[in-house]
Amino acid sequence: MAAGNPRRAALRLVLAGAIWAFGAAAVAAAEADWPARREESWRIVWSTVNEAYFDPTFGGVDWTSVGERYRARLDDAADPAALRALLQAMLGELGRTHFQIVPREAAVFSPAERDRVGVLGAALAADGEKVRVAAVAADSPSAAAGLPPGTEVQEIDGVRLADVRAKLAASGFDPARAMRQLLALAGARLQAPVGTKVRIAGVTPAGEPWQAELACAPHRGEWAEPIGNYPSLPLEWETRSADGIAYLRLSVFAPAAMRPLRTFLRGLKAGDGLIIDLRGNPGGVTAMAPGLAGWLVDRETSLGSVRLRRGGMGYPVYPQEGAFLGPVALLIDGGSASTSEILAAGLKDLGRARLFGERSAGAALPSLFKTLPNGDLFQYAIGDIRSPRGQSIEGAGVAPDEPVGRTAADLAGGVDAPLEAATAWLRGRLRNENRETKREGGNGS
Fold this sequence. Notes:
Elements: H1 6-15, H2 17-22, H3 34-52, H4 63-71, H5 80-92, E1 100-102, E2 118-119, E3 122-127, E4 130-136, H6 141-144, E5 152-156, E6 159-160, H7 161-170, H8 175-189, E7 191-192, E8 197-203, E9 209-215, E10 217-218, E11 222-224, E12 233-235, E13 237-242, E14 245-250, H9 258-266, E15 273-277, H10 288-293, E16 301-307, E17 312-317, E18 328-332, H11 339-349, E19 354-357, E20 367-371, E21 377-381, E22 384-386, E23 402-403, H12 408-412, H13 417-444
Parallel strand pairs: 14-15, 15-18, 18-19, 19-23
Antiparallel strand pairs: 1-21, 2-7, 2-10, 3-4, 5-6, 5-8, 8-9, 11-12, 13-14, 16-17, 16-22, 20-21
Helix pairs in contact: 1-5, 3-4, 3-5, 7-8
């Protein structure tokens, strides 16, 4: 497709959110070798895509021509920030997710660097065409500032979210996908280096204007350890059980969470129901999806397949001893992406889980990272994923079996409608199974 394609232009806007989200101001490069490092960085990015992109036709994009156009502009990239913007724009021509340039100063590879990712403690959710505060963590900057759940977020650092949504819609995004992209951008902007001040303005559920400048605080919980060039990320998980309903929430797919999750699943009993909450989970280590699925099945199966540049591969699932075989409900929303979508689509297609909530992000391409000569990280996709039934996830997302949104009144009142719907469905399933068991016992006596 031509470089002027409006949908690709919109994707460039979305992908540029990586730079907006990190908000890192670059220092001018005074080193004498900057032109050489700049040229080599461009070469690595262009040639890696040229060799590893799963579609040899590049979706109709003339990748050679794209490379030539952006190489001709290299002299304009006088510093790392300008080079990032140029390379990100070049990658945006592909119109795909999982192609981005991550500033090295925003990536965490050691405990000493963890102050590069600070948090405000506010989770976001979509409500029609509005972005609202879904929850506020205790003892967080958002809680200290009195940010009410249910508040419509209208501006972040002077950027009007309605304007961004309008640009996405005008560029060809359907309203639902434009909102999913906007939600991802807004959520990313609420993470910044510790001490960074973020100004939020909006309207509370009571209709009153609300604005404050909040300073990002350190993440006090667990961290996912880096894997190769894949950086460390804040990690949260939650498990609980009550009245036969078990609940598991995971913020990102990281190996550090696998052991406690495995222990939790092993402890479930026959007659229990399980809720897996992947709302707001952007993905992580892809191999964890089939690994987790292995604790939910009793036979070998697959979560789908991946088309690579040459050949392909599957996501085989191997049943684990003591796997939980009771009913499973899975919660998703517009913030559920990548590995979350692989697991959700796979369990849905296999008939192993019923999905509740909102359509997922539609950002599910397996990817790798490289370190560029200028120190930045380059993330690039290497495959296209299909669900067990052959459905593409990228750009489309995963549709819930039972769509359940969250309104301003629900959020303000602490009502979690998707969780309540999933709980009600599980209780109904368990009652039916219990009646069936009693009937079979009576017939056999």
